[in-house]
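Q: Got a minute? One more chain.
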Amino acid sequence: MHDECGVLVQGFDSPPVVMMPYNPAHYPALIEACGYCKERDLIAYEFITNQAMRPAIVRISETIEASGAFRVREIETKRFQREVETVRRIYNSAWDDNWGFVPLEDDEFRWRAASLKSILDPRLACFVEARGDDSWNAVGFVLAIPDVNEILIHLRGRLTPLAIARLVFGLRRVKTARVIMLGVVREYRKRGLESLLLREVHQRAARAGIRRGELSWVLEDNHATNRTIVKAGGRAYKVYRIYRKSIV
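A: Always. Here it is, folded:
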């Protein structure tokens, strides 16, 4: 579940974003003809950054900030390995109730983080921290990455030195980003911190010149997160399906 997963069943009218799968529209029928049926759906949401965040989300975020009990900070790339361990702690706590979730060990999480480091934009990676007795402690995290597919689609599968240069120097001109991680540790859920992180990454993406964002994916039965995303203005525009089949 930590890798690309799911069969696209709705939303064939736009190309996939980075690290999301794609398949022709006839695949679901072929899979079902082999005796497989739906297990879970994964929902991808679209945001347009020039559309203002919904007032309810802004109001919740401003109330949280005014309390003085929480703050948002950008990831510190100079302390990358230490920051990665903080993200792993948040990740394993925030997603532990999700269907199919398996906690990531240190070595695998570091490997995954290293694979993303080359396309990481620090402006789009933020912690929300809670005030402690004598320090601030990270309790939530959001990460969006540029959609490198915007560049790769023009390379036609040819990874020449020129193509690599276009990839490296083209990242800052990419107009789409994908939110691949947004979560809050168990002890701080239901305090509106998810709304604060959504508003923060939306504003930062707009300032960075990102015109469109995808937040993916969210389990269909993660009702609290789905409600928050819709309340923030997200539009469900793609659905990926996990299939199952009895072998008894």
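A: The CA atoms of residues 96 and 155 lie 39 Å apart.
Q: Perfect, thanks.
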